[in-house]
């Protein structure tokens, strides 16, 4: 972990490039809690969703207008650019060069040149069933992919000071939700095209996987098919603050809340099963692990009824990890308080900080 020292209490700008929008958050640390200083969310314009120079330049202009200070930014490496895995290596006490061994393993598994990528690795907590080995989780990104991303932001006058993974960004944002030393937290990122499950234990990511059909897009398609409404209307329904409001939006049609409720149940059920499997892994490997909460993040967490249905189906303590839950947020930014789609950007802004007590 690097030390971050500067005269301003502003942290770097966390930028989350999603499928449908680009979110940005800038925090400060005036005392013992993070303070949200600036927020922006702009729709994606690229037809094939490939980030280009025009989009990044447009983002830079928006940041300047929305009260962001400085040009230092932290980005999450897009999932499609990441490679990684979990490897069983010799015990760290053996003196073996574990980082080098992990690099060679990644190169072998993914058929890459060992010098062609940047790599980050972390030891998994020792389980009671462990032998004289060290389990290491690794995430890596090819130099060519990273350089292409950095160049886009450099051309727009934005200085990328760090690249992170979305998983670690979410973990950094949500680790304060775990109160006990042996507490575990399931983080469920409901994105547009897929869902991501992350298990956090003792402040470390011990498990993660992607659910390809778990994105909000599948819920939207289901509703379009069931209601006959077009894409724009269904998108608006999913942004309603309640299912009753969704019915009122459609002229008081009582069938809309029922259809929305049924679709949410059908959407949540398979994801809840995947969540149960992921948390069972933690319980099996770490017998003292206690699931204290399931944090819902991402755009899907903002859909009315999803968190309640997830809690009902999974029988777990589910909470929406939104901006107002994780940091102090002024009344000036009140419209963003309940927005869980900004959690990734928040965690990226906090890259150089420890979680406030």
Q: What keywords describe this structure?
A:
Dna Ligase, domain 1; about 350 residues; 3 domains; alpha/beta
Structure description:
This protein has 357 residues and is an alpha/beta fold. It folds into three domains: 1-77 and 322-357, Nucleotidyltransferase, domain 5 (2-Layer Sandwich); 81-144, Dna Ligase, domain 1, CATH 3.30.1490; 179-321, 2-Layer Sandwich (Nucleotidyltransferase, domain 5), CATH 3.30.420. It contains eleven helices and 14 strands. The longest helix has 31 residues, at 255-285. The chain is globular.
The largest sheet, given as strand count, sense and whether it forms a barrel, is:
6 strands, mixed
- Trace the largest sheet across and list its strands: 8-4-1-2-3-14
Report the CATH superfamily of the largest domain. ATPase, nucleotide binding domain
CATH names the topology of the largest domain as Nucleotidyltransferase, domain 5
Structural class per helix/strand content?
alpha/beta
Average of the residue pLDDT scores? 88
Order of SSEs: EEEHEEHEEHEHEEEHHHHEHEHEH
According to DSSP, the number of beta strands is 14
Shape: globular
Low-confidence stretches: 1-7
CATH top level class name of the largest domain: Alpha Beta
Separation, N- and C-terminal Cα atoms: 18 Å
Q: In percent, how much strand structure appears in the residues?
A: 25-35%
Q: Tell me the CATH architecture of the largest domain.
A: 2-Layer Sandwich
Number of helices: 11
How many domain regions?
3
**Spatial extent as radius of gyration:** 21 Å
